[in-house]
Amino acid sequence: MNKIDPKQKFSLWYLIGVAIIVLALQYWARTSTFETLAYSDFKTLLQAGKLSNLTLKDTTISGTIDLHDTQALLPADTWKSLTRNNQLTHDFITVRVEDPDLINQLQTTRVRYTGIMDSHWFTTLLSWVIPTLAFVAIWSLAVRRMGSSGIGNLMSVGKSKAKVFVQKDVAVRFSDVEGIDEAKQELMEVIEFLRTPEHFQKLGGRIPKGILIVGAPGTGKTLLARAVAGEAQVPFLSISGSEFVEMFVGVGAARVRDLFNQAVQLAPCIIFIDELDALGKVRGISGLTGNDEREQTLNQLLVEMDGFDSNRGVIIMAATNRPEILDPALLRPGRFDRHVAIDRPDLKGRERILSLHAKRLILAADVRLDIVAAKTAGYAGAELANIVNEAALHAARENKQAVEMSDFEVAIDRAISGLEKKNRVMTAKEKETVAYHEAGHTLIAEFSKTADRVAKVTIIPRGIGSLGFTQQLPTEDRYLLKRSELLDRLDVLLGGRGAELMKFGEPSTGAQNDLQRATDLVWHMVTQYGMSETLGPATLDKHHKLASIPGYSETTGNEYSELTAQSIDAEIHKLLQCSEDRVRTLLTIHQQELDLLAQLLLKQETVDREELSKILAMKKDGLHPAFQTSIT
Ligand code: ADP
Ligand code: MG
Ligand code: ZN
To answer: Is the CB of residue 218 below 6 angstroms from any atom belonging to ligand 1?
Structure first.
């Protein structure tokens, strides 16, 4: 990527060329006037008294030969070349060999001689030029070898235009992104703003500066960002966080500055930082490895974002699949404060992604993409695109006229065996467990008095830890909660485990996170909020969480006795036990809905508010409409 500038390359060769020409000229000038003699011939001529004007240097002897009567003394070819100009004298040069008698001999022949130090300007120059040239040559070779990383960047500090990928006309549209309608919806506003910034500025509104797209690998984050630029018809300046990491100190920061300068000139436009996590990891935790560069780059990014007025028409987008490791400074208001989550697509979404990618294939009549979608629960867009491609390749290998269902089956099998290694595909039994678990959460939330209503429930794995999730509305934080509200929340947390117990008679490990949160909640109720009847209104702080963080002393709170500690444990236990009982009662009453919801989840993986309301309302009115049509 970071090649040598062609101009630089040119001047380097130019220099070498000139040096070679100078050398050649000099050599020619010398050899044409000086005949190179063998040392033995030199001695013979000296003895015969045919030499004059001798100049002695460290390594050579030169002078003039009187050619009178020398034919007999010299080899024929030497004599011939000495006399080719028909002159009576000729200059010569010979290499000086170790000869202690030379000076004596010179004295006896009474020839005139001068000694000269071997420091001709030309030799001096040579002793400089040749090593320098050699060095330059090696260096430039090394630079080219190293390519984009390393020394190459030294030459272009601050001039980083090559790295920023600017695309003026992005061809990707929203129609190229399927199955993530919610994320698309959220980004519509951004597109509107980029299309008609004046409209928003007139009203004095502030447009979000930074938008962070969060989602598992392959869910289409990069694709979506490009689609936003494509829809808004604005330039798309993209750069990947991982590219910053391998640079020399100062280069990344200069590059960030450059990126923002370019963006201002191109506004309205989108800056997109892919793989933000590579750049934006929490500062100061990676220990020994030199992360100065990353920190400097990150700091520069923060500085640029702060000093940036989003009303100039530049929107900064970033993507990451690991938001939890990002430096909190990046997520503060005025930076990446708007988050757009992309989930793995559900059944319908998968079918739409599959048909989008299958559009360019010739499909046989037996291909049922809805079945392919049903078999690929938990797959992200990139994996689905890959399955379509694999199926096409397989059909081509078999010389088929069209891609058949059997090709898709082969592709799915291959993808599944690949994914199983990554531990992401659930067995049918696991899926059923997750379905009942999530249905349990949902029903408790619906039937408790104060808990937030459920907006959506799904058994599609989200992130690494959870196997499904129940999304309750509203999601914003509440500052004041009453005891009854906390108890309802507790019941919802235990609802998943309760449903598992009811259906399968035993709990699974899937409830671990719920239990942890439930215990945490109860602990707070008892020791922080004074909500326990037995222990009364007191905060009992001994085992405060902070105690486990180094630097905080163990004694931040009030001391309490061993007896009190036992009461706390008993009280926590009691609250959890009561909650479990309430959950069991409630789920027994609503067992029918539980089964219906779990079955619907198993069938279509996601159940939204509307479908959920139908299940809750219909109770005993016969089957849910969704069960009347069926997929094999
Ligand atoms: P990410 O950046 O989230 O890792 P990409 O945007 O690079 O994922 O997606 C890789 C490819 O997978 C895309 O180029 C596209 O072909 C396909 N793809 C992923 N998600 C979708 C989607 N929602 N709709 C259509 N195609 C998708
Ligand atoms: Mg990507
Ligand atoms: Zn749960």
So the answer is: yes
